[in-house]
Amino acid sequence: MNIVDAARHWLALFVTVMAPGTPLFWLVIHPGITLWRRVGPVWAYAAGFGAHFALGVGIWHFRHKLLMSDYGANLATLSMGVTLCLTAGVIRRLSLRRLSIRVLLGLAEIAPERCPEKLVTGGIYAFIRHPRYAEVVCTLLGYALICNHATAYAAVFVLIAGLLIVVPLEERELENRYGAAYVAYRAEVPALIPRFRSIRQARSILR
Description:
By secondary structure, the protein is mostly helical. It has one domain. It contains eleven helices and no strands. It has helices at about 5-30, 35-40, 40-60, 65, 75-100, 100-105, 105-110, 130-145, 150-180, 180-190, 200-205. The longest helix has 29 residues, at about 150-180.
């Protein structure tokens, strides 16, 4: 195995471990939010990251079988992957302009009294409701395209399927927290894929 194929192999393993574990973390947090608010964020994060770690260990154990389907290095998928990773970087930067890392990690939901947060509807949040999830999808799909392994693609599919469950759970909590304001916001702004009505409107997101 040459150095390029070795790098692709390890990147595929990273995607395979991280992609399914990301929605799993939130599937531990959101349904049990009442419990986590009662026992505190330490236990919440321990449970969420613990589930993520346990899944990662299981995937690592079967890594040799999981990573057998290698489609080989491909310039087209490499180019698309790099483009998606750059897009993810832009989304991350725009997200952090509006929300802190603590909020993006869910502290405002787990411990709202320790991390109060107003409903954010400006900047990138005027175009998509969940830029953090869009960033994660772009990043891991970008990595999957770069490494071009079947298992990495399958892991990203699991990620997207998991987020389709996570997003309604999170939005139910946001509706409980912000009420009619969030209902109106959700009706106007798409979840993950923006609808730009003009070039001028698209440029405004970068300001």
